[in-house]
Amino acid sequence: MLTDYLELNNYWHWFVIIFVFLNIFACWWLLRWSSKTTVESHDNTTGHIWDEDLQELNNPLPRWWLILFHMTIVFGLAYLFFYPGLGNYKGSLDWTQENQLEELMQAKAVKAESLQAFWNDMDIETLASNASALETGTRMYAQYCAMCHGSDAKGAKGYPNLTDKVWLWGSDLKAIEHTIRKGRQAVMQPWKDQYTQTEITALATYVQYLNGRAPEDELVSQGKELFSKTCVACHGMDGKGLQALGAPDLTNDVWLYGNDLATIEHTIREGRNGVMPAQETLMSEYELKVLTAYIYHLQQEAEK
Predict the structure, then answer these.
(1) Which pLDDT band holds residue 119 (cuts at 50, 70, 90)?
(2) Out of 80, 139, 270, 295, which residue is the most buried by the measure of CB atoms under 10 Å away?
(3) Rounded distance, CA 80 to CA 28, Å?
(4) Whole-angstrom Cα distance, residue 195 to residue 235?
(5) What whole-number distance in Å separates Cα of residue 123 and Cα of residue 119?
(6) Helix locations, the chain, DSSP H
(7) The pLDDT value given to residue 1
(8) Mean pLDDT across the stretch 24-40?
(9) Considering the domain 186-276, what is its CATH architecture?
(10) CB distance 13 to 88 below 8 Å
(11) Does position 5 have pLDDT exceeding 50, yes or no?
């Protein structure tokens, strides 16, 4: 353990003890010496004068101040008796940071168990409207999800928006829980070895046409023909995607990486590989349940 590693050898152990007690004794001696020291003067002054008429008097220290000073010395000795502070001496209470942390962790575990027992009797939809569960879900989201999906859960380039219902594998409760629990692996294969740059541009233009961002022309017709040969297996004839494969709907205006022509061309040419890590090894069952409820709640709030 770290505490064993940091234990002082015999020399330093006694050096620390002697040094500490010498300092405490020096404070006590200084207090005694200064409280008894007097300056011989017929007018009870020290002889120091400032601004011609401001004199320093030779009055003794206030008794209440002396008492407080002695109390601090007594407190210091008592602390060193009860708690570690003298070399390897562990204190009569045997207090350690590790023990205190363990006590706090146990108290937290007991509290968590009581919450789990309470929440296990609720379904996810009920949890999604429970204030206590949502407060816990907020903290879980900040810990596990915010670094990718943002503090507002609206995502960023390459990271999906969790507040809408445009989910590649579905946005119902069962799909959300599966996504969090098992993770997802999205694969868009690269087509740079199968198509020329001109053909990739035609495909990208047709994709833009599907969501109303490009006029129908000869390039779109060429892209449609290529699309029907290679893309329909995942995205369908109408381009609306297939949730079973995680293939996105190309007819809406929700784009994970961007909807400009250059970005779509890059996606077709180089492919994409999105990964949602599985969380089941990081969370307990009740945490998975509460986080699912929190994400579901975000969707419901966004629809209002």
Answers:
(1) confident
(2) 295
(3) 16
(4) 18
(5) 8
(6) 2-5, 10-36, 63-82, 97-119, 124-127, 131-144, 146-149, 173-182, 197-210, 218-230, 232-235, 261-270, 285-303
(7) 38
(8) 79
(9) Orthogonal Bundle (1.10)
(10) yes
(11) no
- What residues form DSSP beta bridges with 188? 272
Least confident stretch, 31-40, 52-61, 107-116, 221-230: 31-40
CATH node for 124-163+171-182+282-303: 1.10.760.10
120 residue type, one letter: N
**pTM for the structure as a whole:** 0.64
* Dist. CA 27–CA 80, nearest whole Å: 16
pLDDT digits (tens, 9 = 90+) for 168-189: 999 999 999 999 999 999 999 9
Residue at token pair 């040419």:
269
Q: How far apart are CA 280 and CA 127, in angstroms?
A: 19
User: How far is it, in rounded angstroms, from Cα 143 to Cα 206?
Assistant: 41
Radius of gyration of the chain (CA): 36
pLDDT tens-digit map of 241-278: 999 999 999 999 899 999 999 999 999 999 999 999 99
Phi, psi of 45 (to 5 degrees): -125, 165
For residue 245, give the DSSP letter.
T
Q: 2, exposed or middle or buried, with CB in 10 Å at 0-12, 13-18, 19+?
A: exposed
Strand-pair partners of 89 = 86
Q: Within 10 A of 59 (CB to CB), how many other CB atoms are there?
A: 9
Tokens of 66: 């002396």
CATH 1.10.760.10 maps onto the chain at 124-163+171-182+282-303, 186-276
φ/ψ bin of 47: left (φ > 0), alpha (ψ from -120 to 50), beta (otherwise): left
Please identify which residue in the block is written with the tokens 């509290």.
Answer: 111
